[in-house]
Specification:
4 strands, about 20% strand, 4 helices
Length: about 150
């Protein structure tokens, strides 16, 4: 049985940016099967979205400063605003999602409520967006490059 050929632009046994890839056990010692590796990386259940919901006090000047620092910090980390106090970020893997969750935790102010959760890309794809109470779905314009 033959293995499927790798995607265009990849040579069998090498990967862009990797000089000596570690071989996975494949039939008859054929080396790394980049076709299945790339499918694993793009799996919609492996790709994650992180959401940060927050409710921070803004009564004093110090609290407003803490709110601004937190908000700007998560935006520097790649989060975009979906609604007021709701930010989301795309991550290529669960490991990458953990890194960004740790960064959010390091930015947390001492007062206020923050919720961090993650969902898979498949779950994110089933979200429905509505604008202004209109029962027709809003056309959500993704800032992420879509490839067909």
């Amino acid at each position: 049985m033959t293995q499927p050929s790798p995607p265009l632009g990849y040579a069998r046994g090498t990967e862009r940016g990797v000089k000596n890839p570690t071989p996975n056990p494949t039939p008859k010692g054929r080396g790394v099967n980049l076709y299945t590796m790339s499918l694993e990386r793009l799996n919609q259940y492996r790709i994650m979205w992180i959401f940060v919901y927050f409710d921070l006090p803004t009564e004093t000047k110090q609290e407003r400063r803490a709110y601004t620092d937190f908000r700007k910090g998560i935006m520097r980390d790649g989060f975009t605003m979906m609604q007021y106090s709701i930010y989301s970020r795309h991550c290529n893997s669960r490991e990458n999602a953990e890194v960004h969750k740790k960064r959010v935790k390091s930015l947390m102010p001492t007062k206020g409520d923050i919720i961090i959760f993650e969902i898979t890309d498949a779950q994110f794809g089933r979200m429905e967006f509505y604008l202004g109470g209109n029962k027709d779905r809003a056309k959500h314009q993704s800032e992420q490059l879509e490839m067909f």
